[in-house]
Amino acid sequence: MFQDFKKDAEEALEKILKARNIEQKIVLEKPEEEFGDLAAPICFELAPVLKKSPAAIAEELVKQIKIPKGSLVKEVKAFRGYLNFYLDYEKLAPLLIKKVRRLGENYGREKKNGKIVLEHTSANPDGPLHIGHGRNAIIGDTLARILRFAGHDIETQFYVNDMGKQLAVVVWGLRRFKLDRNKKSDEAIAEVYIQANRLLEENPENEKEISELLRNYEAGDKKVIKEFETAAKYCIEGITKTLERLKIKHDTFVWESSFVRDSSVDRVIRKIKATKFVRHGEVLSLDLSSFGIEKELVLARKDGTYLYTTRDIAHHIWKSTQGSVINVWGADHKLVAAQLKAVLKILGQKEPEFIIYEFISLPEGSMSTRKGIFISLDELVEESVKRAYVEVNKRRGEESDKFKKSVAESVGVGAVRYNIVKVSPEKSMVFKWEEALDFERQGAPFVQYAYARACGILEKAELESSGDTPVLTENEKLLIKIISKFPGVIEECANTRKASPLASYVLDLANAFHRFYMFEPVLKSEQKEFRLNLVEATRITLRNALNLLGIEPLERM
Fold it and tell me: Coil, helix or strand for 300?
């Protein structure tokens, strides 16, 4: 409903500008707290046109602004060249609380049309997910949840790279080394992959056997196909278990080889060869310099086998027939993403959207699956849950071990998800334990505790009609304003394809609620009914936001 207030303010400004035949884009921004709830800097932009100071223009305009009946704008003031709009909290509060309680789990949900195919994670089936894959998966899953809540029909896909060299090395290794079936399946595959790479480093001449395996797989050798599929599926079985612990599930697993088997890649190559961008030489390539891409895109090797990007062109053409396409890719794929978009444009196909995320690391350093130097996502989550248990035990030592382990699991998983998604994808990050498991101020446990506290208050009282709205305290006003902003935050996240604003929002809401709880008595207040209903509106909004972040709302912790 804060969006309604903003719209009222915009319309009031538009009306007076139109009356004066002034065309100017209206921007509303957050002012300093004591200067209202929205500020318009438009007078600074009009000053050179009207040949007056911003302060003088503001004083003129504020006299002309008429607030329509029923508006959520209480008043407008001019201050230092700004037009400051004040929200009518007494009018907003009962409307908001009623709406939130009526909509419940649907508060903030939008209604839109259109399907989006969102691909994320898509790790090579050569070992466990590391924390870089974790950032991909958490960004992708959270965005999928938000877009679905915003009304989109979402299908999440995992693209299985079963024709890459990595899987060929795994298959080659499985012919030489025993698979340890007592280990988690992706860990067992990684062990074989590492051993095989060491052997290849010692005997480089064996690389030709890897190439031969790839040729045979692409050519349709049934025995080799069986080996590749068995290895990939066994690894993905372990990857899926890791993702399930993080509450991440893919709707569809799409195999790269399917686009070779059904001749989609051949059809793409024929179309590309008919363009002016193709270059024939030792290898088949595309000159994309006219798109600002200096490096040529190689489509086929000397031996005639196709490269990953070539198959991915066919894959994207197929995806685009199902709806809009969003890919979550790492920063090391920026060039490939640009090349792919250029080729699809050449072929007259719709370009996909890319969410490119920068690298994530632990203070321990970098990772390499090939060399066996990496921090697996399993290890990260396990360590988070272990540390969470220590904190839970400090606070709830009297509870059963079953309770403490259950809470620690939810808190530990939530901490990993929140600490990763709170950072905008284009920024690199170091995962810091002291931030992730901050129960007091900045972490997911702090937000979960706000929800649990709200549940605890409501458990002690029977919820009734909120009755008359009292004169609101500043803490109540802040809480009401933040709750009213939730639908706008969902809209922002959906439009920008970023989940980080929701992470910031839910922390603001938790902080506002903790402040309200600290300074405003609820159960012993004269405004008990109203404040209980405000607590309920907070609880509903926190629950909806936490669910979208993939974090379990805990009623007790």
Answer: strand
Contact between 367 and 374 under an 8 Å Cβ cutoff? The reply is yes
Structure tokens at 467: 């009755």
Q: Answer for the pair 488, 3: CB distance below 8 angstroms, yes or no.
A: yes
Helix or strand (DSSP H, E) at 84: strand 82-87
Question: Residue 461: left if φ>0, alpha if ψ -120 to 50, beta else—which one?
Answer: beta
CA 336 to CA 358: how far, in whole Å?
15
Q: Which two tokens stand for residue 527?
A: 């405004």
List, in sequence order, every residue forming a beta bridge with 297; answer none if it has no partner. Answer: 286
Tens-digit pLDDT profile for residues 230-256: 999 999 999 999 999 999 999 999 999
pLDDT tens digits for range 478-491: 999 999 999 999 99
Please name the amino acid found at residue 285.
S
Beta-carbon neighbour count of residue 366 at 10 Å? Answer: 11
What is the residue whose two structure tokens read 């008429």?
Answer: 66
List, as one string, the DSSP characters of 357-405.
Answer: E--EEBTTB--BTTTTB--BHHHHHHHHHHHHHHHHHHH-TTS-HHHHH
pLDDT-derived band at 33, boundaries 50, 70, 90: confident
Provide the CATH topology of domain 2-87: Gyrase A; domain 2 (3.30.1360)
pLDDT at 301: 79
Cα separation, 227 vs 213, whole angstroms? 10
Contacts (Cβ under 8 Å, ≥6 apart) of 50: 57
59 token code pair? 């004083």
**Joined tokens for residue 178:** 């025993």
Which DSSP letter does residue 323 get? Answer: S
pTM above 0.85, yes or no: yes
